[in-house]
Specification:
four-stranded antiparallel sheet, alpha+beta, 2 domains, 8 helices, Jelly Rolls, 55% helix
Length: 217
């Protein structure tokens, strides 16, 4: 069998496809897939009767992969956090990837709280989950002061999960900076991103463990 010069394009294209299947990085896989498609298209164009169907489909596959490559580059851009976001990330969310963390903060609402402002009121269900980056919170059940929650502690998590009325009062003992996620918004966020559910659940479990250690340690 005599190989024509154009036949080498087919062989080289298939070698590129084999390489694409052997790489682990999805970005490189897509680049090799594009190179394979672009390499073989001239072969179809050089035939006596141009093979338009494989030219068309090869172009479509190359275009799709190029679009996905652009998305990957955008997703891999360095994430720049604001001072409040950086402090929050360092306090409680280091297990999340920075881009996941930024998308989570976009669902929340940043605000300032004055000393004495309540974040939980006994007998009233929690409407949001909050976490402070500055400012401690005192917790009281009836007439008994249970202790203080330091910045980086989730406030209202258990109540959000159960929907029960709060058994405690909680208020800031100093001016504070915090972010709050309304329950309806955070539930929609998790429903749309099931891949983050496990990470957020792990954060909640770690927060419960810290509170138990502080209470009984």
């Amino acid at each position: 069998m005599t190989l024509q010069p154009a036949d080498y394009l087919v062989h080289f294209s298939n070698v590129l496809m084999l390489v694409s299947y052997s790489v682990r990085d999805i970005l490189w896989l897509r680049w090799f897939a594009v190179a394979a498609a672009v390499t073989v298209i001239p072969y179809y164009l050089m035939q006596a009767d141009i093979l338009w169907p494989p030219v068309l489909w090869g172009s479509v596959f190359a275009a799709i992969n190029i679009y996905q490559i652009l998305r990957l580059y955008l997703e891999r851009r360095p994430v720049v956090l604001s001072p409040d976001e950086q402090k929050l990330y360092d306090l409680a969310f280091r297990s999340l990837r920075p881009r996941e963390f930024v998308s989570l903060t976009l669902v929340g609402q940043w605000r300032n709280a004055a000393a004495g402002e309540q974040v939980l009121k006994a007998g009233v269900p929690a409407t949001s989950i909050c976490i402070a980056v500055t400012g401690a919170v005192n917790v009281r059940k009836g007439d008994q002061l249970l202790g203080s929650l330091q910045p980086g502690t989730l406030i209202g998590t258990a109540l959000a999960l159960t929907g029960d009325a709060s058994p405690i009062d909680a208020w800031f003992i100093e001016p504070a900076r915090l972010i709050c996620w309304p329950l309806a918004d955070i539930r929609r966020y998790i429903d749309k991103r099931p891949e983050l559910r496990e990470s957020l659940q792990r954060l909640v479990n770690q927060d419960f463990a810290r509170k138990l250690t502080a209470s009984f340690g």
